[in-house]
Amino acid sequence: DLKRMKDFEIDEEHLYAVVGPGIIYSQLQEEAMRRGMYIVIGGGGAQVSAIANMIGDGWSPLSYRIGLPHRRILGTELVLPDGELVQMGSLALHDDPFWGEGLGPDLRGLLRGFTGLRGCLGIVTKMAIKLMPFQPERLEPTGISPNTTLQLPTNRIKWINFTMPSKDSMKEAMYEMAKAEIGAGVTKVPIFWRAIAKARSKEEFWELWSKESEETISNFHVLRVLLIGFASEEQLEYEEQVLMDIIKELGGEARRTRPSDESWIK
Ligand SMILES: Cc1cc2nc3c(=O)[nH]c(=O)nc-3n(C[C@H](O)[C@H](O)[C@H](O)COP(=O)(O)OP(=O)(O)OC[C@H]3O[C@@H](n4cnc5c(N)ncnc54)[C@H](O)[C@@H]3O)c2cc1C
């Protein structure tokens, strides 16, 4: 059991954390956010070991903007089955995990191993993970458990849903957003999300969902975009203007969208 291996260190100047396998994402996120930084948490949840998640997954809706998870692994210490200690990235040179690739061949493939996922060829005892700068305001929790959420500052974080005229226009909007380098996350909204949002029980979900037909499913073109002013309020304003121009040109329309939704910002 690796739970007691709780090495934990944050380098605020160079934006990375060094963690042991016993550190879970929520602990890491709390400390990062206190310092105006952010760790991208895989869609699996904040209650898992950061190392266990990073060795095989690390995917989040924010990967659209922030990139491939394994690129955020800056240094790894791995014990092989024969007891040999391997240090990857610039950790192989000295105690400074600033560079994930390091000298020579990039060995991060060992973390995925034969299976490509959860096939790690050793035990990871330490990992340096890149942190991102984040909007500086404290995120306020609201609601009563289990229905809690974070009140997000709308001058820095904004969701907008758009109704698009067709699947192609939705695809085109995604291409144009990527070319303009805007948006923190973007996804097609599947119609069953609507049933999930409305239903208060499993039975109600199935009742709502069974009303949909092949036609309603294939004609539902809703695009969900998350904007974050990572660096400033002006960044969010700029990205919103560019986004609105793209959507207008493609014949889309903004829908009423709930401004606070913690599910993509864990
Ligand atoms: C419904 C669902 C949705 C998910 N969606 C996403 C998603 O969108 N994005 C995403 O990134 N992930 C996703 N996941 C994956 C999930 O996040 C991972 O399964 C989780 O991170 C594992 O964490 P854990 O602490 O439970 O690890 P464990 O289950 O304990 O470990 C996971 C694997 O890593 C190995 N391992 C653990 N620690 C070490 C170590 N120190 N050294 C070497 N090997 C080790 C274990 O042997 C095991 O094979 C999803 C999972 C589920 C069930």
UniProtKB/TrEMBL annotation:
GO molecular function: FAD binding; oxidoreductase activity
InterPro entries: FAD-bd_PCMH, FAD-bd_PCMH-like_sf, FAD-bd_PCMH_sub2, FAD-linked_Oxidoreductase, Oxid_FAD_bind_N
Key words, A-Z: FAD, Flavoprotein, Oxidoreductase
Cofactor(s) it depends on: FAD
Pfam family membership, one: FAD_binding_4
Occurrences of domain FAD-binding PCMH-type (ranges): 1-134
PROSITE patterns the UniProt entry points to: FAD_PCMH
Keyword Electron transport attached: no
Presence of keyword Iron-sulfur: no
Family in the record: Belongs to the oxygen-dependent FAD-linked oxidoreductase family.
Name under which the protein is recorded: FAD-binding PCMH-type domain-containing protein
Originating species: marine sediment metagenome
